[in-house]
Amino acid sequence: MLGGEAWPAPARVAILENVASVEVSAERGIVVSDPQSRRPHFSFPNPTPLKIVAGRGQGLEVGPRLLSVSMITLEAIRGGILKIGQREYSGLIDLYRVNGGLLVVNELPLEEYVVGALRGEMSEKWPLEALKAQAVAIRTYTVYHQLLNQAKVYHLAAGTQYQNYAGRVNSASPLWVAVRETQGQVLTLGGQLVVAFYHTDSGGWTERSDLVFSGEMPRLNGIRDEFSVDSPHARWALELPLRDLRELLRRGGIAVGEILDIEVVDRSESLRVQRLEVRHTQGTTPLRGVDFRRLVGYDTLKSTLFAVSMQRDRAIFQGRGWGHGVGLSQYGAKEMGERGYGYRDILVSYYSGTVLASLDTLTLTPPTPTPGPPTPAGAGSSER
User: Fold this and answer.
1) Between β-strands 71-76 and 30-33, what pairing exists: parallel, antiparallel or unpaired?
2) Residues 149 and 73 grouped into a single domain
3) Is 277 in the same domain as 299?
4) Alpha-carbon distances of 355 from 52, 70, 189, 345, 347, rounded to whole Å
5) Which helix or strand (DSSP H or E) is residue 349 part of?
6) With 90 as the cut, is the pLDDT of residue 261 above it?
7) Which domain holds residue 153?
8) Is residue 299 part of a domain?
């Protein structure tokens, strides 16, 4: 059981936030109803998009009608597929008026969400065993957040701050094979769900979870990762003008003078930067490595596994890997799959000490809340 709901509980994922309007369509039209009672307001039996706007006052403009409500549910007539832009969605679309804008939430069965997130995280052309390992990680991460956020409007958001979610996946996709062959499987440690973090590329070493993420949760240990040393993101370089770095720090609320030097003062066992000092004309500013990366930008500074040197008016970074480094390395899983390892081998390798369990055998209890969502990503892939 999950929060009194019959298992498996639907996943609720925010797909759009703070938008002024949204257009939703379905082949046979849409039923507009109350999300709590499910009683219909009206039907829109038309394949053309139904436009919803945050109307005047507290109401919603829903196509030709003005409804004096702050939330509605959209359902495709005869169980069809809902479409927003070029993306299709299974299940229901809930719309909430929040702070003058619209919050759009897709509510759908857990396994359909898992396959949609798998599509957002890995190519269906990758080895099946890698896809299966990723599916288990996604499912574990999802259920953890269903428990953590069960009282909230949505459990997760679509994007790298949680998991990339690409909507409905065609039933013929090999992604569905990976999901069906691991259905209901999650990772546990000491009888508790782990937070199954994953990232693009470890650069050769994964990181201890407590060195990156705060909150009470089962700790994932770092490992030597031989399978990620030859990926496209195994090595990278960045030249960053000091004036640009100073501006990035300023935008993040860190005021510094003209930057003179950057010195790493502490590294973890995986050699990731734990602490560094920015020396400038107004003094010395200490920063955590994860905070420095956030300020510079996750897509710019790909990881905290780097060395830094100064060259006239530039900082030169030489680094490895992409992402926070905790848990499964996606490119490492790909390499393991190509070498013939099974998904259980992949999971045991990256989530050392964990046990693969079935949801229907577990007693699920809400975890201790953590202060905010996990660190957002770079790489167009998970950075949780």
Assistant:
1) antiparallel
2) no
3) yes
4) 45, 44, 6, 12, 9
5) helix 343-350
6) yes
7) 111-230+324-361
8) yes
